[in-house]
Amino acid sequence: MYTVKDYRPPKPFFMMSINELVKYNKKCQEIDKFLLYKKPNLKKHKKTKNRRNRKTRRKKRRTKKNLSKREKLKMKS
Q1: 44-53 long-range contacts, Cβ below 8 Å, gap at least 24?
Q2: Which residues touch 34 (CB under 8 Å, ≥6 apart)?
Q3: Distance, CA of 14 to CA of 29 (rounded, Å)
Q4: What 3-state DSSP class applies to 1?
Q5: How buried is 31 (Cβ within 10 angstroms: 0-12 exposed, 13-18 middle, 19+ buried)?
Q6: SS3 of residue 70 by DSSP
Q7: How many CB atoms lie within 10 A of CB 21?
Q8: What is the mean pLDDT of residues 16-20?
Q9: Taking CA 22 as the corner, what is the angle to CA 18 and CA 23, rounded to the nearest 5 degrees?
Q10: Of residues 32 and 73, which shows the higher confidence score?
């Protein structure tokens, strides 16, 4: 919504009237509140399951495939 660039006054301070200065001051206060108290938009990464589990899953798949191949060969002969 707001950025640091929004602090720039519309004209130099010595040329502003009192009402313009008050208006600018209120605007700066709003920007301060927004920038100081906004929450950072951080997305946390999901943790992957540990590596050992992944290894065992791979091994299980391999053994299942091998077992099924062996059984098919037994059935054919």
Answers
A1: none
A2: 1, 2
A3: 20
A4: coil
A5: middle
A6: helix
A7: 12
A8: 95
A9: 115
A10: 32
**54 token code pair:** 């992944």
Write the pLDDT tens digit of every residue in 26-69: 999 999 998 888 777 777 766 665 666 666 666 666 666 666 66
pLDDT at site 52: 61
Spatial distance between the Cα atoms of 61 and 48, rounded to a whole number of angstroms: 19
Say what the pLDDT of residue 40 is. Answer: 74
Q: Tokens representing 37?
A: 């108290």
Spatial contact of 3 and 32, defined as CB atoms under 8 Å apart: no
Task: DSSP for 10-66, please give it.
Answer: SS-GGG--HHHHHHHHHHHHHHHHHHHHPPP--PPPPPPPPHHHHHHHHHHHHHHHH
